[in-house]
C-alpha cells in the first residue's frame, strides 16, 4: 500500500504557512558569479568543447590555464564567453573584453554536438584590489568580516576570491541565526592607479528562530512523518542554525535506508512573523 502524499506542518503555532522559498539574497553589483553553463532556454542543449583557442595578447601561462580548465567541458551558448571573462578577472584583468566565440568545427558523436571554438580576448590592464570596506554590520567585528575574504589588499584583483568571501559571510551570518542576511558589493575603480576598491553593504536582517516543520511528498516508510513531527518540538523556537538543522535531520534518520536519506531535501520557508523561519522537508 502506497503511503499517501502529505503536506504536514508543526511548530510554534497554527499560523498560515507561506511556501515561497526564502534564503540569503546576495546581489552582485559589480560582478557576475552565476554558473556560466546555465541557460534561460529550457530547450537549449549544451555542446561539448573539444578544443579551445584563445586569441589575443594575454600571457601564455594564463592562456594555457584557461584552456586546460575549460576544454572538454559542456557549455550553453554564451556560457563559454562568460566563463572566459571570469577567468580573466580572476587573474587581475578587471576590464577584460571577451568577444563572441566562433565555432571552427562541429561534429556529431552519439547525439552530442562536439565543437572546436576560437575566442578573441582583449585583456586590458591589470588591476589590484584596494580597500574592502564593510558597512551596515554590527553582529560581528569588522576585522572578522574582512577575514572572510581570502585576498589581500594590494594583490591582483580576483573575482573568485571576492565571491568566496561573500559566500563565507553568508555562512557566518547564517550560523548565528541571520537567515535574511544580504550583502551588496559595489566597486569603485581608480583608473589612474588601476585599483578596485570594494564597499560591501550588509543588511543583517535580524535574528531568526526555528518555526514550523513542513513535510512534503511521500514518506519513505510508514511512521517516518510522525517521527519527524514528534521530534521537531525539541527544535522549534530555538535560534536558527543550518548546522543544528543538519544534526537534527541526521539524528532522526539514522536508521533509515541510505537511499531514502539521500533523497531528502530541505529548504527554508518564510513565516508571517519576520523572526521565524519554517523548514520544509521534501520526500522524493
Topology:
Blueprint: E1 6-10, E2 25-26, E3 47-55, H1 60-70, E4 74-75, H2 79-90, E5 97-98, E6 102-109, E7 112-122, E8 128-135, H3 142-146, H4 159-175, E9 182-190, E10 195-203, E11 209-217, H5 224-232, H6 242-252, H7 258-262, E12 265-270, E13 276-283
Parallel strand pairs: 2-9, 3-7, 8-10, 11-13
Antiparallel strand pairs: 1-11, 3-4, 5-7, 6-7, 9-10, 12-13
Core attributes:
13 strands, 3 domains, disordered N terminus, Ubiquitin-like (UB roll), flat, 284 residues, alpha/beta, 5-stranded mixed β-sheet
Summing up helix and strand content along with how strands pair, one would put the structural category as alpha/beta
Helix content: 10-25%
Strand content: 25-35%
Number of strands: 13
Describe this structure in words.
The chain is an alpha/beta fold and 284 residues long. It folds into three domains: 6-22 and 208-283, no CATH class; 47-122, Roll (Ubiquitin-like (UB roll)), CATH 3.10.20.310; 127-203, Roll (Ubiquitin-like (UB roll)). Helix content is 25%, strand content 31%. It has helices at 60-70, 79-90, 142-146, 159-175, 224-232, 242-252, 258-262, and strands at residues 6-10, 25-26, 47-55, 74-75, 97-98, 102-109, 112-122, 128-135, 182-190, 195-203, 209-217, 265-270, 276-283. The strands form three sheets. Strands 3, 4, 5, 6 and 7 form a five-stranded mixed sheet that branches. It has a four-stranded mixed sheet with strand order 1-11-13-12, covered by helices on one side. A four-stranded mixed sheet has the order 2-9-10-8. The radius of gyration is 24 Å and the shape is flat. The two termini are 17 Å apart. The relative contact order is 0.18.
Amino acid at each position: 500500500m502506497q503511503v499517501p502524499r502529505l503536506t504536514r506542518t508543526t511548530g510554534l503555532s497554527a499560523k498560515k504557512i507561506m511556501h515561497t522559498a526564502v534564503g540569503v539574497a546576495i546581489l552582485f553589483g559589480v560582478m557576475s558569479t552565476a554558473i556560466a553553463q546555465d541557460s534561460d532556454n529550457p530547450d537549449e542543449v549544451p555542446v561539448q568543447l573539444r578544443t579551445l583557442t584563445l586569441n589575443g595578447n594575454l600571457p601564455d601561462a594564463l592562456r594555457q590555464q584557461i584552456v586546460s580548465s575549460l576544454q572538454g567541458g559542456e557549455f550553453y551558448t554564451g556560457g563559454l564567453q562568460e566563463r572566459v571573462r571570469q577567468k580573466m578577472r580572476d587573474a587581475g584583468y578587471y576590464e577584460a573584453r571577451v568577444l563572441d566565440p566562433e565555432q571552427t568545427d562541429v561534429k556529431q558523436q552519439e547525439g552530442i554536438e562536439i565543437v572546436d571554438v576560437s575566442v578573441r580576448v582583449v585583456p586590458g590592464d591589470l588591476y589590484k584590489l584596494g580597500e574592502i570596506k564593510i558597512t551596515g554590520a554590527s553582529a560581528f567585528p569588522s576585522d572578522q568580516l574582512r577575514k572572510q575574504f581570502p585576498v589581500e589588499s594590494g594583490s591582483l584583483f580576483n573575482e573568485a576570491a571576492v565571491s568566496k568571501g561573500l559566500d563565507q559571510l553568508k555562512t557566518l551570518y547564517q550560523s548565528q541565526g541571520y537567515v535574511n542576511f544580504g550583502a551588496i558589493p559595489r566597486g569603485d575603480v581608480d583608473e589612474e592607479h588601476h585599483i578596485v576598491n570594494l564597499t560591501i553593504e550588509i543588511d543583517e536582517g535580524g535574528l531568526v528562530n526555528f518555526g514550523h516543520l513542513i513535510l512534503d511528498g511521500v514518506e519513505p516508510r510508514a511512521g517516518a512523518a510522525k517521527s519527524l513531527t514528534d521530534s521537531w518540538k525539541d527544535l522549534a523556537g530555538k535560534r536558527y542554525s543550518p548546522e543544528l538543522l543538519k544534526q537534527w535531520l541526521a539524528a532522526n534518520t539514522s536508521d533509515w535506508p541510505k537511499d531514502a536519506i539521500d533523497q531528502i531535501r530541505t529548504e527554508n520557508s518564510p513565516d508571517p512573523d519576520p523572526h521565524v523561519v519554517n523548514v520544509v522537508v521534501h520526500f522524493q
